[in-house]
Amino acid sequence: MTIPTVYVTSELNASFTCESCGKSYTKDVSKFVRHKARVRLKYKCKCGHIFSVILERRRTIRKDVCLKGVLMQNEKQYPGEITDISPNGLRFKTLRKALIKEDSTAEIKFTLDNPNCSEVRRFIKVRKVLSEYSFGCEFESSEHFDDLGKYFLFYF
Known about the structure:
By secondary structure, this protein is mainly β.
């Protein structure tokens, strides 16, 4: 059984529906927004059904992808793939161990899976080191006026 994901609005509320009776609820989740870890909430409906939801606090939705790319930092190149992407950032997995630290900057080059197979180069900031092979990165600029911007508009 998968736990449903609910999105936090700009007013710091989340809306979810009871799986049993279908009644919808909107709750204030402001006290959970700043948590670093994944937030899983349990709720008991008036009908007696107890269910869980996961709060999604990202500003934009991420798309699961498999895009080949290379992360470049300090004249070293780490080939790998982008596993998910959003207009604000991406997750990159390297094929070999990478000595990359949080809050460091790097450049990433990857090929989109659009009809043109467009190549994209961006400067990124490593926000989270998930392992020696996996990194959560943020684009230094969230303005995408090239094929990446079109990708977010038409292939997302």
